Amino acid sequence: MPPTAAGGRPNIILVITDQQRYDTIAALGHPHVDTPNLDRLVREGVSFDQCHVTAASCVPARASLFNGLYPHTTGVLRNGCEWRRSWVEQLADSGYHCVNVGKMHTIPFETPLGFHERYVVENKDRFLEGRYYFDEWDKALAARGLVKQQRELYRQRPDYREAMGAFTWDLPPDMHSDNFVGGLARWWLDTYPTTQPLFLEVGFPGPHPPYDPTPEALAPYLDRDLPIRPVSQADLDGQPEALRVLR
């Protein structure tokens, strides 16, 4: 896709990963991870090393990002709160063709939010909220006759507690949520006629738990020394009681 559309207006692609820490990017000083594509963005773009979320929960943080307002102004204070408006509507009104591929975490899930097209892929495991909602990923898995890896099935494993939410993705690699979203976005771009300026949001569900790399993605790390952040007694003493109980 060319960087500009007809008329010279820039195409905009916004890529969002879910719950990815800054210290999982090699170019930001953490060479224990392999992140060539993110490293390229760091080298050729701008990195913000004092960028902070407005809320510690997914839905309030995303509502703030797409409204430019704090949670106490949007009224979206927790997961599950409805949010239906965003600045994407202004891009659409100005002539952009607005497309979402992957996760946006609007409530309801398929709220237009200004997008002309939405190909929704939600949380990898929707155990509590929207459990019976079927997104594009669910449909693709079903079309292949595959049963999605999910918490209900993980809980049947004898190593469930010891694994602490980390399990390999044992279905076909192209059906992993992040590979699926990336492939869907690439397919969409390859078929899009560039007659209008484009705003494309690509939302990857990972690395949000469960931690489920494909065996191929995990292999380079199996014999690698990975830094572990030291935890002091003072850190533990400062935890809320609920977290100490769960340790």
Properties at a glance:
single chain; 247 residues; 4-stranded parallel beta sheet; 11 helices; 9% strand
Strand order of the largest sheet: 1-4-2-3
Major sheet details: 4 strands, parallel
Shape: globular
Average pLDDT works out at 90
| Helicity range | 25-40%
Element pattern in H and E:
EHHHHEEHHHHEHHH
Distance between the termini: 48 Å
Beta content comes to 5-15%
Question: Can you characterise this structure?
Answer:
This protein has 247 residues and is an alpha/beta fold. 30% of the residues lie in helices and 9% in strands. The chain contains eleven helices and four strands. A four-stranded parallel β-sheet has the order 1-4-2-3. The C terminus is likely disordered.
Give the structure's gist in a few sentences.
The protein is built from eleven helices and four strands; from the N terminus they run E-H-H-H-H-E-E-H-H-H-H-E-H-H-H.
Element layout with pairings:
Blueprint: E1 12-16, H1 36-44, H2 58-65, H3 71-74, H4 88-93, E2 97-102, E3 117-120, H5 136-143, H6 151-154, H7 160-163, H8 177-191, E4 198-203, H9 215-218, H10 233-237, H11 241-246
Parallel strand pairs: 1-4, 2-3, 2-4
